[in-house]
Amino acid sequence: MSRTIVVTGAASGIGAATRDRLERSGHRVIGVDLRNSDIDADLGTVEGRTGMVDQVTRLAPDGIDAVLAGAGISAQGMERETIGINYFGAVATLEGLRPLLAKSARPRAVAICSTAAILPSNAQVVELCLAGKEEAAREAMANDGGNAYSTSKNALSQWVRRAAVQPEWGGAGILLNGIGPGVVKTPMTTPLLSQPDMVKLINQSNPIAVNEYAGPEQIAELLDFLLNMENNYLLGQLIFIDGGSDAILRPRQV
Questions:
Q1: Residue 76 CB neighbours (<10 A)
Q2: Burial letters for 194-228: b for 16+ Cβ neighbours within 10 Å, e otherwise?
Q3: Are 210 and 244 in contact (CB under 8 A)?
Q4: Is 233 a catalytic residue?
């Protein structure tokens, strides 16, 4: 049965691969990105987030069946923007579209987190994020000058775990989960993978047990399942799809 699914970050990388897979299966996808999508919106701003929700509501007034919060950035010198998009943009997407999800008979939601969530992060900024203090979190991250990506993904992973079991999410039958991709060959990572020194650092922070990094279409396979699954019992999980990085770095974790 065809479902209506919102995908943010739909213009490239994992988002684009997921959109392609879903559409080939006959689903209707409403794509959101900065440009070249059904809805052009900057999720790093309050105005962009509000406009996105309004436009999705206009395009799908009877509700949506699933949402993938996949928009994200990773760039040096953009610490404020990284917190704004990766955490607050993702949370605003999921919370803002939750009323539309509630109209579905089988609502599902997924946030793209990262194996970076288990790397060093700024605990103060994480707590500010979870408290909903966006400007303070942005400012503190800018003053820190590092670990913005891992901090944003750590905060988002914690938010998913906390929100998923609340009455308005799991209690309402809306199953919310996160995935933790490792290094994936996307436009965001391709420039890094061409630099030998950077590859050496990546191999240290994200060691893998398999022979090569995944392409985005491999991540899309897992997302397809989570956005369309029929069970009513899988929620609040951060599922690592990382070539073994988490198992190598945290062998005692259960």
A1: 10
A2: eeeeeeeebeebbbbeeeebbebebbbeebbebbb
A3: yes
A4: no
- What's the one-letter identity of residue 238? L
Q: What is the pLDDT along the chain (254 residues), one digit of tens a residue?
A: 899 999 999 999 999 999 999 999 999 999 999 999 999 999 999 999 999 999 999 999 999 999 999 999 988 899 999 999 999 999 999 999 999 999 999 999 999 999 999 999 999 999 999 999 999 999 999 999 889 999 999 999 999 999 999 999 999 999 999 999 999 998 878 888 889 888 898 999 999 999 999 999 999 999 999 999 999 999 999 999 999 999 999 999 98
CA distance 58 to 202: 42
Q: Measured on CA atoms in the order 135, 131, 119, 33, is the torsion positive or negative? A: negative
Total residues belonging to the chain: 254
CA distance 120 to 202: 14
- Which of 87, 149, 213, 233 is flagged as catalytic? 149
pLDDT digits (tens, 9 = 90+) for 89-124: 999 999 999 999 999 999 999 999 999 999 999 999
